[in-house]
């Protein structure tokens, strides 16, 4: 909801996330225009020698129309609530400012794809966004119908990482609330974020591979595009998104 800043707990979560991500070079920090995401992104940028936060309207919160600011307990009594839960692809939120969930997914995924193209195949960048938006992006990365997005969880200030390649995206992490970032770092052999912008590999590891921090079959575990929720980290070759709790209606 517009005009709702982070509370004390949210600021503490943002500071913890910023400290956690501090070792990871980011080619861009992209944020929803809503205040709580801007605050999260600013906390992350503050550890990076003046790196600027770029506002991207297309990763903003779903436009809930007349539902905006309403208590969840009240909304749960609405007939539309069950549709949101079971059949989100059929949902258009009420009122002149209401948006459909498919339209929300389309704009958010289009934004990620355009940032991937803008930053290039070796980039890693952060997107601070919201729960429903992140769940919709994750569903797209897995080739799932939007109706399956409610099976995905995106907690405040969790980290979701998606690696985009020419053939398919790879969901590297989802709703991670405490892991390190060693496997996301630039590699000494020149693969990954900073050096050389090596080839982007679309093949999946057979038999599970050797883990994201290692190289299997000459293939770096992380090459491009990652995403963060609460911070979503996207490697353009990746994407990221940062989400803080909204007031009443929360993704």
What can you see in these coordinates?
With 251 residues, the chain is α/β, with parallel strands linked by helices. The protein has a single domain (8-63, 100-199, 220-241), classed as Rossmann fold (3-Layer(aba) Sandwich), CATH 3.40.50.1240. The chain has helices at residues 8-21, 35-45, 72-75, 79-86, 101-119, 131-141; strands at residues 28-31, 53-55, 124-128, 159-164, 169-176, 215-216, 219-220, 231-235, 238-241. Mean pLDDT is 82; it is low at 193-197, 213-230 and 233-251. Helix 1 runs parallel beside helix 2 and helix 5 (101-119) packs across helix 6 (131-141). The chain is 27% helix and 16% strand. The strands form two sheets. Strands 1, 2, 3, 4, 5, 8 and 9 form a seven-stranded mixed β-sheet that branches. Strands 6-7 form a two-stranded antiparallel ribbon.
């Amino acid at each position: 909801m517009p005009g709702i800043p982070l509370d004390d707990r949210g600021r503490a979560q943002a500071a913890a996330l910023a400290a956690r991500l501090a070792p990871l070079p980011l080619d861009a920090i992209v944020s929803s225009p809503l205040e709580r995401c801007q605050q999260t992104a600013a906390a992350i940028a503050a550890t990076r020698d003046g790196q600027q936060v770029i506002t991207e309207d297309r990763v903003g919160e779903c436009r809930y129309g007349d539902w905006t600011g309403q208590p969840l307990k009240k909304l749960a009594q609405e007939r539309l609530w069950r549709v949101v839960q079971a059949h989100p692809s059929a949902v258009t939120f009420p009122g002149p400012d209401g948006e459909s969930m498919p339209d929300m997914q389309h704009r958010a995924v289009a934004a990620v794809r355009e940032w991937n193209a803008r930053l290039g195949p070796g980039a890693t960048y952060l997107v601070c966004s919201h729960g429903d938006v992140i769940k919709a992006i994750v569903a797209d990365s897995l080739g799932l119908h939007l109706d399956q997005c409610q099976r995905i969880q995106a907690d405040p200030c969790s980290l979701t990482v998606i690696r985009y390649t020419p053939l398919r995206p790879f969901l590297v992490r989802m709703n991670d609330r405490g892991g390190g970032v060693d496997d996301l770092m630039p590699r000494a052999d020149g693969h990954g974020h900073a050096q050389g912008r090596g080839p982007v590999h679309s093949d999946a590891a057979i038999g599970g591979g050797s883990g994201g921090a290692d190289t299997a079959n000459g293939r770096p575990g992380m090459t491009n595009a990652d995403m963060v929720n609460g911070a979503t980290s996207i490697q353009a070759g990746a994407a990221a998104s940062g989400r803080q709790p909204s007031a009443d209606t929360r993704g």
